[in-house]
Amino acid sequence: MPAAAPSTSRPSPRAVGIAAAVITVLVWTGFIIISRASAGRSLSPLDIAVCRIVGASLVLVPWGAWLVARQRRTPGAEQGSLFGLSPLSLRLSALAGVFGAVAYATFAYTGFFYAPAGHASVLMPGSLPLWTALLAALVLGDRITPLRAAGLALIVAGDLLVGGRSLLHAFEGGDVWKGDLLFMSAAFSWACYSVVVRRNALDAVRTTIAITVFALLTYVPVYALLAATGVLHSRLPSAPWGEIAFQMGFQGIGSVVISGITFTKMIGYFGPVRSTMITALVPGLSALGAVLFLGEPMHWTLIAGLALVTAGILFGVQRAAMKKVAVHAIPVGAGGRFDA
């Protein structure tokens, strides 16, 4: 009798898709909660950004060098840039890197030092689809349909409920409004990055590598120079090694590398529409996590803003369901996509 074929223990596509969705949602939720918790510890926001970039670079720089070497053996293929570490051209690496790596990380981490995680839960995922829709209309010529406009109106209302409350208290000496504006600026930066990716039809993995390499070769040297000359006070030399390693692992490898891969896997199995519905869980989960783990209060304005933003994202999903266009950009450590 012929020998039986060896059984394979590889997981099914459904199991891979579900696991990828769970990991993506957990990492994005953890990004908001952990970043806020880190604001009360040893590192400054710019220190955390360095940890994020260096941590991600440990994986993505060798990966980028391998991709560029392979590309250069293919006639007519993209030759790469930045000393053979970025698989994209210098122009695209810089354009995407300024928005998707340097500006996003700087705004987001600084925002957590002023405003609670509950505000970030609403304003970063909430502002992202708003900015993306407006920029896509201006730059890419996308049409804002009535259904999508209704979704954007809900998002604006939700953002105003949360951010407007802190702005009203700005004259009383509070700093929360600064964090709210920084969260919205981070979302604007990511929206610019998303538009760059869509306009140039960039591959998600290569673009993530490119922006990480760009940040490593620009942000990190400038940070080191400013710290060495005393212009910038770096807390890295006095911070515990365990905290530095944790931030490099979670913010860099977790939020950039792992969530980037799992998001791509999730899109591959569930498609862009259902994936956006899944990632719409992130605002609610992170706001709840902020209450449970950080002891943050849950004001009625936050609950209402959260509901409006989530509803607005789902309205955008309906628009995406009708058009069925592909997703190109990966939100790294941010909220879900709306311009799919």
Itemize the secondary structure elements and their pairings:
Elements: H1 13-38, H2 45-72, H3 90-111, H4 117-140, H5 146-168, H6 176-199, H7 204-228, H8 241-279, H9 281-294, H10 300-323
Give a description of the structure.
The chain is mostly helical. The chain has one domain. Helix 3 crosses helix 7 and helix 4 packs parallel to helix 10. It is globular and about 60 Å long. The C terminus is likely disordered.
Short description:
This protein has 340 residues and is an all-alpha fold.
List its traits.
single chain; 340 residues; globular; mainly alpha
Mean pLDDT: 85
Cα gyration radius (Å) = 20 Å
Order of helices and strands: HHHHHHHHHH
Low-confidence blocks of residues: 324-330, 334-340
Structural class: mainly alpha
Strand content: under 5%
Cα(first) to Cα(last) distance is 53 Å
**Strand element count:** 0
Can you tell me the overall shape? globular
Domain count? 1
Task: Report the major sheet.
Answer: none
The helix content is: over 70%
Tell me the number of helical segments per DSSP (H or I, 4 or more residues long).
10
